[in-house]
Amino acid sequence: MKVLRPTAVFAFLFFSLFSFSQTNEKWTLEKCIDYAFKNNLQVRQAEITAKVSGNENLQSKLNLLPTIDGNLNFSNNFGNGFNPQTYSYALGNSQSIQTSLQGTLPVFTGLQQMFNIERTKYDLLASKFDYENAKRSIGLSIASSYLQILLNKEILKIAEKQQALTGTQLSTITSKIKAGSLPETSGYEVESQLARDEANVVAAQNAVDLAMLSLRQLLQINDEKFEIEIPEVKFENVENVAALSSQSVYETAIGTQPSIMSAEARVKSANASHKMSIGALSPTISVFGGLSSSYFSGDRKYTIKYDTISGFIIPSQQDNGAKPFSEGLKDNFRKVVGVSLNVPLFSKWQRVTNIQNAKLQMQIRELQLDGSKNQLRSDVEQAYTNAKAAVQSYVANKKSMEAADKSFTAFEKRYNAGMLGNYEFQQAKNSLATAESEMIKAKYTYVFRLKVLNFYQGKPLKLE
Predict the structure, then answer these.
(1) Does residue 446 contact residue 239 with C-beta atoms inside 8 Å?
(2) Across all residues in the chain, what is the average pLDDT?
(3) What are 160-168's contacts with CB under 8 Å, separation 24+?
(4) Residue 422 and residue 435: Cα distance in Å, rounded?
(5) Are 297 and 96 contacting, i.e. CB atoms less than 8 angstroms apart?
(6) Domain range list for the chain
(7) Which of 257, 256, 237, 253 minimizes the C-alpha distance to 245?
């Protein structure tokens, strides 16, 4: 049996601890968003669509190059075959080979190729903006889910705090009952409240678990040990919202939102398609060229022989056998160069219909752009109104919580001095818990509403 060396043991422990720390690393909001950018299905689909548009744009440029085709045909003929060189029938089985190389280069196509490059360029831009919009949308959803977890964890702390206070209160009452200073029935109400507090803790923990599950589903992570980092959330000055206006946010959003830029690019793409349809009415000019050769196994090699009979020169053919393959290809080698002019005369009104449809499609894209701008204005105005309301709610609930905290402190002193009953003390404690919960909700609602405004202004989503 081999004994492990100290170095090997140390290395094993180091990598084990390193792996453990990696698998148990807590996720920040930025890490969650970066992970979603790389793994979310909708984002990946948008990315692939953008790559397809990139390939189409490249192809539209490559379409300016000539088209070259090569052709090779081989046939084995059984029985009498036709000799394409002598245009006669050859007896017996034969083989034939035809080869050709052809090229065509469009010289003028009514600028359709140039407008097609322009169309695919704007389609590519639109796809890129769609990809960016998908990333921003999933980022906003993740930020909302992340903040919901933080909110639920804060509510869980409040519930646990209330449970601990009720437990301390029950312990005090139990001690007094044992000392005989309080009747046995004095603890029943507090025990009931403790049970309710325990139920509240269970409900709060369940809310945390559900919020964690929602974030995991957004990230498409199945690890049940997934845990987020609890940052120290700084709440911006409420004057930040007061200094803004919905119009100023909208004007910024118009120039930063990918959804608007995508719609604008599609309008330009439709305009290029309209120009292409008009270009289809123009004549097209192309140059072409080709090389070709062929071989037929039944082709014979002849030489001309001249005989003199009675003073007359009489030519005759002498069969020298089958023509060699290389010689057959050489003799049948042909070259061709030409210019082609195609003038569209009448196509059952199809080209005119295409022009009309392209123009209507451009109008549809323009209406979609206007609709996107109207929707953006509506979203910005709603987000701005929600942010203002969240600020007011946060300020009001903060004052309410501070008042409830002072009230509870006063009630606690009177209760400890025996000047207050259990019911009044429980009421003060519950009021404080409610005020704390409402203040926490108002806090995170305010943070999220402000992040939404930042989203429309093109600012990154992060917790500071």
Answers:
(1) no
(2) 84
(3) 160/201, 160/204, 161/433, 162/197, 162/200, 162/429, 162/430, 162/433, 163/194, 163/197, 163/198, 163/200, 163/201, 165/429, 166/190, 166/193, 166/194, 166/197, 166/429, 167/194
(4) 20
(5) yes
(6) 25-65+109-141+223-282+347-456, 68-108+292-343
(7) 253
> pLDDT of 194-226, one tens digit each?
898 899 899 999 999 999 999 998 888 888 788
Higher pLDDT, 145 or 308: 145
For residue 295, give Cα distances in angstroms to 81, 330, 331: 13, 9, 9
Distance (Å) of CA 426 to CA 169, 172, 193, 397, 433: 10, 14, 8, 21, 10
Q: What end-to-end distance do the CA atoms of the chain give, in Å?
A: 56
CA 126, 128, 130 angle in degrees (round to 5)?
Answer: 70
- Residue 208 half-sphere exposure, CB side, CA atoms within 13 Å? 19
In the numeric block, the tokens 């701005």 are attached to 384
CATH superfamily, region 25-65+109-141+223-282+347-456: Outer membrane efflux proteins (OEP) (1.20.1600.10)
Fill in the amino acid letter for 434.
T
| Distance from C-alpha of 75 to C-alpha of 79, rounded to nearest angstrom | 13
Q: What is the Cα–Cα distance from 148 to 406, expressed in whole angstroms?
A: 28
E strand or H helix at 317? strand 312-322
* Residue 275 vs residues 14, 83, 107, 347, 369: alpha-carbon distances, Å: 66, 51, 18, 19, 20
CA 383 to chain centre: 24
**3 state SS of 462:** coil
Amino acid residing at 229:
E
**Rg of the chain's alpha carbons, rounded to an integer?**
42
Q: Decide: 407 and 424 in contact? Cβ < 8 Å.
A: no
Largest alpha-carbon pair distance within the chain? 164
**Residue 50, token pair as written in the block:** 């953008």
CA of 47: how far to CAs of 126, 134, 269, in Å?
12, 9, 19
pLDDT tens-place string over residues 16-46: 444 334 446 889 889 999 999 998 899 999 9
Q: What are the residues facing 81 on neighbouring strands?
A: 90
